[in-house]
Write a structure and sequence with these properties.
The complex is a heterodimer of chains A (98) and B (371).
Chain A (H helix, E strand, L loop, with lengths): L1 E4 L2 H7 L5 E3 L7 H11 L19 E5 L2 E2 L11 H4 L5 E5 L5
Parallel strand pairs in A: 1-5
Antiparallel strand pairs in A: 1-2, 3-4, 3-5
Chain B lengths: L2 E8 L2 E8 L6 E6 L4 E7 L7 E7 L3 E7 L7 E2 L12 E3 L5 E3 L4 E7 L7 E6 L2 E5 L7 E2 L2 H4 L14 E7 L7 E6 L2 E5 L7 E2 L20 E6 L7 E5 L3 E4 L7 E2 L9 E6 L7 E5 L15 E4 L7 E3 L17 E3 L7 E4 L5 E4 L7 E4 L5 E9 L1
Antiparallel strand pairs in B: 1-2, 1-30, 2-3, 4-5, 5-6, 6-7, 8-9, 10-11, 11-12, 12-13, 14-15, 15-16, 16-17, 18-19, 19-20, 20-21, 22-23, 23-24, 24-25, 26-27, 27-28, 28-29
The chains are: A alpha+beta (98), B mainly beta (371).
Amino acid sequence: MIRVELPSHLRTLAHIAGEVQLEVEGPATQRLVLNALEARYPVLQGTIRDHVTQQRRPFVRFFANAEDLSHESPDAPLPEAVASGAEPLLIVGAIAGG
Amino acid sequence: MSGVRVLVGTRKGAFVLTADGKRDKWDVSGPHFAGWEIYHVKGSPADPNRLYASQSTGWSGQVIERSNDGGKTWEPVGNKFVYDGVPGTHQWYDGTPHPWEFKRVWHLEPSLTDPDTVYAGVEDAALFRSTDAGATWQELAGLRGHGSGPHWQPGAGGMCLHTILLDPGGNGRISIAISAAGAFRSDDSGATWQPINRGLRSQYIPDPAAEVGHCVHHMAMHPSRPNVLFMQKHWDVMRSDDGGDSWQEVSGNLPTDFGFVIDVHAHEPETIFVVPIKSDSEHFPPEGKLRVYRSRTGGNEWEPLTKGLPQSDCYVNVLRDAMAVDSLDKCGVYFGTTGGQVYASADAGDSWAPIVRDLPAVLSVEVQTLP
């Protein structure tokens, strides 16, 4: 079981209260977690990563266990703490804008 | 009793303002989509309960929202805007080629006859259409593909397709405008396009009379005379009496011919409204006086409308999609400012009062006249 925390404006958009818990087949990666997240909440498609290129949107960052995973390969295994559900994958909107 | 519903898009959410036909007491609903930029909200002429809203942020990109109950509730629909084929390049600010990149939807124009059909004008400039109530979007690629696309260049606000005028005659004519490329027209429901910029002159481009490259800020049309188009350009107020084939300047005695909005009286096709703005860098009303100018002669002869509007120390702007009219008698006129005020006139501009004063910066104003 993977735990995911979303920024508040995306929780509002997808009508999510609190943390999301997802089951991912095989080794957990950013790509597989996002696939599972978007499958459950299709409204999030295009809001975290580009529809076509699947690249992370520039002002979105991924953190877990106090570690910045934003520049990791989307196919790299997530840290064990995330894969085991001990720690959530944090999807964060950059502190920017007005 | 008839009434009006004013749909306001702002930098931090949407607001729905409603009143009965007297238009003196207003109910304010919102913010809807709080914290998101709402570039545009518009209702379907075929079903006034069907609304579409363009919602975006720099963090999470584009979302399209749809309401089936006049804005009481909303649901997100499709947000996948993918250019047809290989997008190619347009010009960047410095004249170098720059790849087409989707950024946001500036304007949503529902079909005049089908509530499930809606057009979207986007940045980087292109026209999309949905025929399934916003679930999926297809580009009308003939616009970008007609030949001049590689020469289009962004205006200061981005390379946006901001105006979509649908001819009510059922002839498939669509006129659009792009900043800073100019105006374009299709006579076959969007399949093929031609520039319609003859008569425009823009001193700030290498060839002031070029076929494309003009910074058109907005266009307006009265449905009873679709061949007559009015335009507020970066500088110059223009009119065309032949569907855009040729344009004449009608700035006349305006204090400045720069501005963003332009609209037409609901019952008098020769009565038009603009809000002159001081250019180029200041972008606020001349002399700190917020004045709507009205021409009852289709341009050239303009009168300032000031009653109820601030006539000192006013330094707001009125952006291109932030004026609309209702079709009650007398015609109501509405506009929103970057200072968060939405002003209404229930007497065709003779007098004004704010409906609200302290919204986030207003990006767009549309009005529905309800039975």
